Amino acid sequence: MAARPALLVHRDAFSEIPLEDMYYMMEIAVNNLPKARKESYLAQAGTMGGHKITDILFTNSFQVALGDHDGFHYGNFPEVSLLNHDCRPNLAFFVDQNLTHYTHAVRDIEPGEELTISYIDALQARSIRQERTRNSLGFPCACPHCTLSKKDSDASDDRLLAISRIESELSDFSSQASSPAMIEEYMSLYRTERLEHNVAGAYTLAALNYNLFGKAGMAKKYAQLSIEAGLLESGPDAADVREMRILADYPKSHWSWNIKPHRLDESDTDPLCNHIAMVDLTIRNLTATPLELKVVERFEGESPSNVSADDVKSLASNLTSKIGDIFNSSSNAVSLNVQIKGEAPDRKDVSILLKPFETCATDIRVADPGREVLRLTFESEGHQYQADVPSASRKSTTMKKINGAPNEYTAIYIQAGGCLSIFSSAHLSRWMGEIRDEYPLTALSIPGTHNSPTCHVALPSVRCQAVGVRDQLGNGVRFLDVRVSVSQDDSELTLVHSAFPIALTGSKYFRELVDTIYSFLYANPSEAIIMSVKREGTGRGTDQKLSKLLKEKFYNEKRWYTDPRIPKLGEVRGKIILLRRHINDESLNREWGGRGWGLDGSVWPDNCEDGRVGSGIARVQDFYEIDQSTNIKKKIEFARKHLERAAEGVCRLPGHEGFRKDAPITPFFINFLSASNFFNANCWPEKIAAKANPAIIEYLCSRHGISGKGPAGLKVGDAATGIVVTDWVGYRGDWDLIRCIVGWNAKLQLKH
Question: Out of 232, 337, 396, 716, which residue is the most buried by the measure of CB atoms under 10 Å away?
Answer without folding.
Answer: 396
